[in-house]
Each structure stands twice: as structure tokens, then as C-alpha cells.
Amino acid sequence: MKNAYIKFILAAVIFGTNGIIASHIPLSSYEIVLTRTVLGGFFLLILATARREWGSLRRASRTSLVWLVLSGLFLSGNWLFLYEAYQHIGVSLATLMCYCGPILIMILSYFVFHEPFTVPKVSAMVIVTVGILCINGAADQAHGLSWGLVCGFLSAVCFALLVIAMKKVSGIGGILSPACQLLVASLVVAAVTLSMPTAPVSLDMTHIACMVCLGIVNTGLGYYLYFSG
Questions:
Q1: CA geometry: angle at 55 spanning 215 and 188, to 5°?
Q2: Which residues of 107-144 are buried (b: 16+ CB within 10 A; e: fewer)?
Q3: Predicted confidence (pLDDT) per residue in 41-66, tens digit
Q4: pLDDT in tens, 177-186
Q5: How many other C-beta atoms lie within 10 A of the C-beta of residue 146?
């Protein structure tokens, strides 16, 4: 449990820098997500190959494979809505909106996995909900219900469904599972990106370094730590 908590905390710290790094990349939200999923997915595929985990994919049940594909779809929704929210309401507020997800996960886990509500869980849910309502309520009064706030909440919904789907996946290697998930997400994001009009953008070495960091460290390494933890 100690190692699992360390992995989870490290992943949370890494994910917390996503918006900051993305703000230095002059691409559309769709292009940033596409770059992130492709780089992260191939990075994890290389690790999975080195660990010889491909056999677990062939032995996995059809149900697990279906849940794995669904998790990739939910991941693409989570990131597309989140990065769209970044551009409309800023990194901090969009991140707070997305972190409504854990509350939804605890509620869904009660019905899906029959995990009981405990006093610490309920207390945490109430405190976080009140905090989110205060922060987002102030934003709503200042700017009204905006598309950015809607995107932030939809990213939270997709995040909750993503975690539920991943907990349904069994028998697939610890690195191979998020790798396949990222590649499924990249196909969805690629289809969305190709349907969107984009203007040519000039990238310098700083922009490219941020893209590589977001894809390999914040996505590949971060997702390995998160789901293995």
C-alpha cells in the first residue's frame, strides 16, 4: 500500500502540471491532446514490449477488451473537454471543475462496485462539493454559465467513467492496458482534429520540448504511475 500511495501521489503531482505546460504550446486544444495521446501511447507501448506484456492482451477476455476500448473513448472525451475548458476559463478553474470527477467516482462505485460509504468518504465529498460550488458559483455569477464551465464539468464526467471502465479491465499487463487506452483515444482525437479547421503555427524548440514533456512524462509516465498505483 505504501508503494501504491507513492505512485498515486507522484501521478497527481505530474498531472497537476498539465495545464501549465499546455499553456506554453501554441496549438489548438485538439492538436495538443492528439500529440499527448500519440506520444504517451507509443512510449508505454515500448515499455510494454520491453516487459513482454503482449501475451496478456491475447489472453484477455472479450469483456475486458470492450471495457478497454470504452476507457479509451472516455479518456479522449476527458481530455478534449478539459483542454477546451483550459482555453475558455483558464487552467486553475478548469482543473477544479475536472476534479469533480473523484466525487462522481465515489458515487458510481457505490452502485457499480458496491463500495460502502464511510464517514471519511462522505465528509470529504461534502467538503469538496461545498468548495467547488463556492469557487464555481463565484465564476458563474461573474461570467454566467459559459461553455468553458460546461466543458470542465463534462471532463469530470468522462474522468469518472474512465476510472470505472479501467477498474473493469482485468488480465491485461499493467503498462499495456493504459498504452492501448491512449492509442484508442488518439484515434478518436485524430478524427475530431481532422474535422476542425486549424491555422498553421510556427513551433520553436521550447514549444517542441513542452509537447514532448507533456506526451512522455505527463502522459506516459504519469498514467503508468496512476493506474499501477
A1: 40
A2: eebeeeeeeeeeeeeeeebeebeeebeeebeebeeeee
A3: 999 999 888 888 888 888 888 899 99
A4: 889 989 999 9
A5: 15
Residue 209 grid cell: 520540448
Q: Domain of 61?
A: 2-228
Domain count along the chain: 1
Cβ-proximal residues to 176 (8 Å cutoff; 6+ apart), any chain: 44, 45, 48, 53, 54, 56, 57
Residue type, 11: A
DSSP 145: S
CA 83 to chain centre: 10
Write out pLDDT tens, residues 219-228. 999 988 887 7
Grid coordinates representing 229?
Answer: 498505483
H-helix segments, the chain: 2-15, 18-22, 29-50, 54-59, 62-89, 91-98, 101-112, 119-143, 147-168, 176-194, 205-212, 222-228
Cα 27 to the center of its chain, rounded Å: 19
